[in-house]
Amino acid sequence: AHLGAKAPECYFPKEDNSYLVHSTQYSSVGIIADLQLNTANARIKLPSDSISSLRVEVKYHKDDMLQFKIYDAQNKRYEVPVPLNIPATPTSTYETRLYDVEIKENPFGIQIRRSSTGRVIWDSRLPGFAFNNQFIQISTRLPSEYVYGFGEMEHTTFRRDLNWHTWGMFTRDQPPGYKLNSYGFHPYYMALEDENNAHGVLLLNSNAMDVTFQPMPALTYRIIGGILDFYMFLGPSPEVATKQYHEVIGQPVMPPYWALGFQLCRYGHRNTSQVEEVYNDMVAAQIPYDVQYTDIDYMERQLDFTIDDEFRDLPQFVDKIRSEGMRYIIILDPAISGNETKPYPAFERGQEKDVFVKWPNTNDICWAKVWPDLPNVTIDESLTEDEAVKAFRAHVAFPDFFRNSTAEWWAREIIDFYNNQMKFDGLWIDMNEPASFVNGTTTNQCRNTELNYPPYFPELTQRTDGLHFRTMCMETEQILSDGSSVLHYDVHNLYGWSQLKPTYDALQKATGKRGIIISRSTYPSAGRWSGHWLGDNYATWDNLEKSIIGMMEFSLFGMSYTGADICGFFNNSEYQLCARWMQLGAFYPYARNHNSAFTRRQDPASWNKTFSAMSRDILNIRYTLLPYFYTQMHEVHAHGGTVIRPLLHEFFNEKPTWDIFKQFLWGPAFMVTPVLEPYADTVEGYVPNARWFDYHTNYMKLIVAADDYQMAQGSLFWDDGETI
Which UniProt keywords apply (predicted)? Predict the structure, then answer.
C-alpha cells in the first residue's frame, strides 16, 4: 500500500537472475560481454521462447555519447534500418569521457555513472530482465523523478508522472486522447539529475512496446521484437543533450520563409468557390496570411493525383493567388486505389514498378480500404460507417516506401501532377501510420495469429482487437533498399518515416524550390525532412493547453516545425476559445487553422470585426518577429536543439522551471505566457532570473537588449527564403 494505489499486485523477486555473465572484455573503446540463459533460475514463465546466448556491446563513440547494445549472439534478428550519424571510429579517451560503464553480475546489469559527480544515471541491475523471441524486458533505475519525452501520446504535463503509469507506443490513426497511442513513435527520453546535469536516452527499436514509470524512480521497457540498442547523450545541460541527440538522428529541416506565415485549411470544402470565399474574406479583412490548403475534397473520389469536377477551376485559382504572393499546399495519402474502371496511371505504373506491399512469398497485394470511393457508386447515407466502408470504399494498395523503385514511382506521380494538373509549394501527407478502415485486409483475415496477437500485447488502445486493427496485417512483407525482406510487424512504426525522404525529394524535384512537407506519422530522424502537426485535435480548452506540451516534446524529438490545428479540428469552436487559440497559435512554428467537415467556419475572418482585428494584431507581432524566428530555425537546422524551448532548457539552474509547461520560449530570448483558461483576462507566469523587456512597449523594430553587464550579442540568418 505504501507504493501507492496504482502499484502492481505482483513483482519480480530480488533473486531473479535470468542471464549469467559468461565473459567480459574491457578495452579503450568499449566493452564486450557474453551472457548465457540461467536455466536453473528460470522459474518465471514469460511470453514466447527465451534466447539462450546474448552478446552485450558497449561502444564509447564520443566523450559525451555512448551506445550499449544487447542482441542474439547466434542468430541475426531484425534491426532498425534507420541510418544514424555515428563516428566511424571512437573519438573519446578515458581522461575526457563524461561517463564510466561497468557490466554487473548476479543479477546482470549495465551501470553507467557520470564521471564528474559519480552519480549513477543508468542501472539495469534489476530483476525481470528477459530476452525472448517476442518479449524483451529491461528496467533501469532513474537518477531523479524529472523525466521528459516518449511519444506520441497525450498526457497532462511536460514532466512525466512516475506513479505506476504504463504508456504504449505503436503508430495508429488515433486522435489525441489521454494514454492513447497515436500517430508517431519516439522511444526517447531526457532525464534530469539532481546536480543540475541532464542526459538523453534513445532506444533504437521500431517494434510495438510499452514503458512503465515507477516511483522508485525507475523505468521498465517491454518490447515485442528486434534487439536492445540504446544511445545515451551526456549533455551536461538539457539543451546540449538535445543537440547531441539531434546530431545523431539528423538536425531539423530548414523551412522556407513563407512556411512561417499564417496558414488556412479545412476538410469539407465542396468546391473551389468555397476556398475562394475564404481567401477573399481574409484579404478584405487584411489579416496576414501566406498559405492556403485543400484537403482530400479536391480529389476525384479521394484518389491521389486527380482533381474532382467540382474543383476543375482549382488550378486556375491556385495560379491566381500564387501570382499575388500566396503559397499552396495539397494533401496526399499513401493508399492507392486498385478498383478503377478507367485508366488510373498511379496504380498501373505502381504495379508495373512492383511498389505495393504484398503477402509473403506470393505476388499478391494485401488489399485494404481507406478513403477512395468505388467508381460509379452513390453512397447510401443511412448506412453505418462499417457498412459504408464495405459497400462503397475501393480496394487500395499501400506503397512500400522502403523500396528504391517506390521512391522513383512516387516522384514521377508528384512531378507529373505538378507539371500537368496543378501547381503547389508544399505537400501534406496524412494517413501514413498506415491507416486503414478495415482490420488487416479486405477479407478481415490476417494469416498469422502470433504476429497479429503477439504473446505479450503492449498497453495499446487496440489490445483487444489485435495489432492489425485498422492497419495492415503484421505478416505482410516489405523490401528494404538493400533487397532484404522484413515483416510489417517489425517496420510498421517506420511506415510514415519511410515516406518522408521520397516525398521531400520529389517535392524539390517538382518545384525546384525548398518547399515543406508535413507528416502525421513520425519516427526519430523524421525531422530531417518534415514538419508535423499534432493531429486531429478537439476544440476544447484542455487541447489548447496540451498543444504546448506536444510542441515541446517534438522539440526534443528533433522536429522544430510543429503546431496544433488552431481552434481545434473536431467539433464547433467557440468564440473565446478560438480567440485564445489564435493568440497562442500565432507563436506555433507551424501556424495553421484547420477544422473538420460539418463544423462552422473558424478562420479569423469568419467571426466578427473584433476577432479580425485581434487576429491581425497578434499575427502582426508574429510577422514582425519572423527574422528572429527564421534565424532560430536556421540555428537548429545547422546545430540541433530547440526553437520551441522549454524554460528549463534556458534556465536549468532555476528548479521551478523543471515543472513549467504553460509557458515556452522562442529560442533563447523571447518568452510566451498565453492565457489558457476560459473567461480569464489575466495570467500568472514564472519570470526567470534575467533582464527582461516587455515586447508591447513597441519602441524599437530592432531590439538590442543589454544584459546585467550592459553587453549584448546576437545573430541574424538571411537568405532568399526558398532556395534549396
Answer: Glycoprotein, Glycosidase, Hydrolase
